[in-house]
Design goal:
By secondary structure, the protein is of the alpha/beta class. The chain has seven helices and eleven strands. The protein is globular and about 65 Å long.
Amino acid sequence: MNLTAMLRNLRQLISALLAMGLVACSSGPSYNPTTFVAQYDKGTVASAKIKNVIITHVNISGPSRSYLERHEARIDARLAQRLKESGYKVLPQRLFTQEWNTAIRAFGDPFDPTTGRVNMKTFVLIMNSIKDQLIAKSNVDAFIFTDLIEHQTAFNNGMNHEARWDGVSRKPSLQGPGTSIPAGFDWNQMASVVSLQIVMFDRDLERIFLGRGGIDATDAIDARSGTRFERRRNLLESDKYINEGIDLALHPWIPMTDWPGSNP
């Protein structure tokens, strides 16, 4: 068979497979059923005329775990860069921090460090005070809260033992002495993973956006025991994963290329 005939037969085969749904289009996004669907109304955000935003230094759901908290500034800085690339002006975070410190002296700290709970009555009083001060002193249009949300999932998807959550797929990491995972490893046991949640409020403190995107696992397989997960020593070290989490959490306010939430 000559080359022309071979290419013709190959094209016919690919066409048949595409028609049967056996070959996926490589240029399109890979559908992930765990992708978070944001709470977002395009008309409401457009009418708010958001141009100048400020990323707060506090979480709306309470303080992060200490091993995640040390990464918050780096993630906020990357989010700020992403917003600037999309045409928004990001006001200095210190403006919010200064007003926050003044407000908690007047109303008390809304976060209980022993329970991790938030006193919402106090939180609302503080935010109203900050809002009034910043509107008077700056041209802020919106307040953005970034929370690192840790939860549990299993690495039991497919032959590669992937975990899927909030739009991402990740393979497990191996940590410690040893290079292999025992054949009898229980892939149904739960491991800790982390997502980025982004919540935006307008000048009237009305919530106008809530999105979430997965980042990475905070647990790895303990190579010493070969039977369980343990806390990873190097957390959130992949800038690629952080960028993906930010893009997922911002969609569709800032559209993500190849968003994985579209069911084919």
